[in-house]
Design goal:
The chain is globular, with a radius of gyration of 24 Å. The protein folds into three domains: 138 residues, Jelly Rolls (Sandwich); 144 residues, Lipocalin (Beta Barrel), CATH 2.40.128; 85 residues, no CATH class. The strands form five sheets. It has a five-stranded mixed sheet with strand order 1-3-8-5-6, covered by helices on one side. Strands 2-9-4-7 form a four-stranded antiparallel sheet, with no helix packed on it. A four-stranded antiparallel sheet has the order 10-11-12-13, with no helix packed on it. By secondary structure, the protein is α+β, with helices and mostly antiparallel strands.
């Protein structure tokens, strides 16, 4: 799958929120009083919360297996303030920006495997307390906020959760969590000089430190990386606005690659580089997988690829023929029948380089030159390649989508208004 799944995320969110069942009367959640609920696929339930400015709410989902629910906190007007999914966190966390009535919405995500009623218990706590043994990993001060990355030990002291605390004048203003059990990896500041091991990383860190507004929206922000601790996966980056409130404005999942700041965007914010992941493990081992570089910049609050910045001069046809001839010798004549068949070398890496530097027609000419005349399955391979390409950054070049987080909030507001009207 590609690094930032814009289209996939949009479809996923639409599937989650496309249908809403009949409304049920607003219930209340009380600290220390678990509430058992039962939801069918697509069902939503709402609960009322009375909170004062700065009050903390944590609602945990307890079930025999992953409850697979989406959740959101909305203010009295129905505006979504926080949304999330139990796939990335086993608890919903919220801090009230002001006194008032708030609504907690929970929805059972429909999926091909979802069937029958899903039973779970909601456990509400209004007291925030880090478990004993929690340790501060790193701290940064941004626009008057103290941002602290904390390690929270699990049953095994070496493994546990990571929590990011956003504090201002001693008061907790926001929390960022990822229940990935990543131990001492987890969250980190990419601009921390202590994490820079190469001259290039030091240069990137300095660029981040001197750029308060990395997204170009006029608000100082924190850029926070997350690494799950695998051999080479998985990486995510959070962009968190630190203005009057703490707002996560973008989460970029770069999978097997990292996200690096490479320069200033003249329109505001920074430009970044990562690598395409759509062809990782595709017909070859990860070590042999081509992962072309992609340049990204913020557009309307969303980090999008800029292919104009990636263009390069085309190679001569003589060089292309020579490369095709050499690559063709390494391809067996065994029939190609499905994705997953091993090739000695990823000849499609040259195709991707051509495509990502602005020369797609040459990529298909190269493909015709490199494919052995006696090898069956050429059209099948071509179709599979195009399918993978459609899930890549390149596949999003002509797709205009709203920010996935903003889209999620708007759909939650639609659910709320639908339930209120019924």
């Amino acid at each position: 799958m590609r690094s930032i799944q814009y289209l996939t995320s949009l479809v996923f969110v639409v599937l989650i929120f496309a249908s809403v069942t009949a409304a049920q009367s607003m219930e209340s959640l009380s600290p220390g009083k678990p509430v058992a609920i039962s939801l069918a696929p697509g069902d939503a339930r709402s609960f009322g919360l009375e909170m004062k400015a700065g009050d903390f709410a944590e609602i945990r989902f307890k079930a025999d297996d992953n409850p697979e629910v989406a959740f959101g906190f909305l203010d009295a007007s129905g505006k979504a303030l926080v949304t999330g999914n139990s796939a990335s966190s086993n608890a919903a966390v919220f801090i009230a920006p002001k006194d008032g009535k708030y609504t907690f919405l929970v929805k059972y995500e429909p999926s091909p495997d979802a069937s029958g009623q899903r039973k779970m218990t909601l456990e509400y706590s209004n007291k925030f307390m880090l478990p004993k043994g929690s340790k501060q990993k790193a701290v940064s001060t941004i626009n008057g906020f103290k941002v602290r990355i904390m390690f929270v030990p699990g049953e095994d002291p070496e493994w546990g959760d990571n929590v990011v605390l956003f504090e201002k004048r001693g008061a907790l203003k926001g929390i960022l969590r990822n229940d990935g059990n990543a131990g001492f990896t987890g969250f980190s500041f990419p601009d921390d000089p202590a994490n820079a091991e190469t001259p290039e990383q030091k240069k990137q860190g300095a660029l981040l430190r001197r750029t308060a507004d990395k997204t170009g929206d006029g608000i100082p922000d924190a850029m926070i990386d997350y690494y799950s601790g695998g051999a080479h996966c998985c990486f995510s980056t959070y962009f968190v606005n630190l203005g009057n409130t703490v707002d996560v404005v973008e989460v970029v999942n770069t999978d097997n690659a990292t996200l690096a700041a490479i320069g200033v965007n003249p329109k505001g914010g920074l430009r970044f580089a990562t690598n395409e992941n759509a062809f990782a493990y595709w017909n070859i081992s990860f070590a042999g997988s081509p992962m072309p570089e992609v340049i990204l910049e913020f557009t309307n609050g969303e980090l999008r690829p800029n292919f104009a910045l990636m263009k390069k001069p085309a190679p001569t046809m003589a060089k292309l023929r020579a490369k095709a001839k050499a690559a063709s010798r390494k391809i067996s004549n065994n029939p190609y029948t499905e994705v997953g068949m091993d090739f000695q070398e990823a000849f499609w890496g040259e195709m991707l380089d051509l495509i990502y530097t602005g020369h797609e027609p040459l990529a298909w000419q190269y493909f015709d030159m490199v494919w052995p005349a006696k090898k069956p399955g050429k059209e099948k391979f071509k179709a599979d390649f195009k399918e993978a390409l459609a899930e890549s950054y390149y596949g999003t070049r002509n797709i205009n989508t709203s920010n996935s987080m903003r889209n999620s909030m708007q759909l939650f507001e639609k659910i709320y208004n639908t339930m209120r009207e019924q």
